[in-house]
Amino acid sequence: MRRRHLKAVLEIEEKVYPRPWSYQLYRRELAMPEDRRIYLVARTDEAVVGYAGLMFAAEDGHVTTVAVDPQYQRQGVGIRVFLVLVKTAIDHGAKHLTLEARVANVGAQALYRRFGFEDAGIRKGYYQATGEDALIMWANDVDTVEYEAKLEDIERSLGDVVRVDRVGTEFERLAV
Predict the structure, then answer these.
(1) What is the extent of the structural domain holding 61?
(2) What is the per-residue pLDDT across 143-160, written as a single tens digit (0 to 9) for each?
(3) With 171 labelled, which of 5, 7, 20, 66 sits at a CA distance of 20 to 30 A?
(4) Half-sphere exposure of 33 (CA within 13 A, CB side)
(5) Would you tell me how many other CB atoms lie within 10 Å of the CB of residue 121?
(6) Which residues does 139 contact at the CB level (< 8 Å), separation at least 6?
């Protein structure tokens, strides 16, 4: 993700989150060193259609955000964005991954479970705008050969429905 992507990212934020992140928050996140934060965008031609972010705490990667423009949902964009985020986190030394998901968002939870995330607890009232609880999920030992095989299986299952070419930490092309 680059500063030039923020207008489109914020438009998606407005569509999918009751309390979207601000431009200033994203600017601060993007200013962080890559060994502390990773933010990626998925694009079709020039349009940003999804994004994901992660912060590091020692050897843990904490997924901070994942979103797909509603008109591109259910087309494989989310799983591909998440796959590249997870691989990038592992490349940067993550051994375990964690995230929070809205308790009611069973679709997101299913995606995360596909990546080996397991329920670890509940954060009551975590989402301030709605008062919703968050399900805490963890994927442990993501730096193993077994987990690498899981990621390869996920990638194979996608086929060519969605293709992402990665240059650095930015998706360059996304064909859907």
Answers:
(1) 3-175
(2) 999 999 999 999 998 866
(3) 20
(4) 5
(5) 10
(6) 96, 97, 98, 112, 115, 116, 117, 118, 147
Read off the pTM.
Answer: 0.88
Are the C-beta atoms of 76 and 158 separated by less than 8 Å?
A: yes
Task: Convert 151-161 to b/e letters by CB count within 10 Å (16 or more is b).
Answer: beebeeeeeee
Give the largest Cα separation in the chain, rounded: 40
Question: Using CA of residue 66, residue 37, residue 158, residue 9, what is the dihedral sign?
Answer: positive
Q: Which amino acid is at 81?
A: V
Q: 2 φ, ψ to 5°?
A: -120, 165
Strands 96-102 and 60-68 turn out to be parallel
Span 70-81, average pLDDT: 91
Helix (H, G, I), strand (E, B) or coil at 45: coil
Degrees (nearest 5) of the Cα angle 35, 114, 56? Answer: 15
Residue type, 124: K
Return the beta strands (E) in 45-144 as ranges: 47-57, 60-68, 96-102, 118-127, 132-139
Q: Which residues are catalytic?
A: 100, 112
Indicate the pairing of strand 132-139 with strand 96-102: antiparallel
CB distance 176 to 151 below 8 Å: no
User: How many domains does one find in the chain?
Assistant: 1
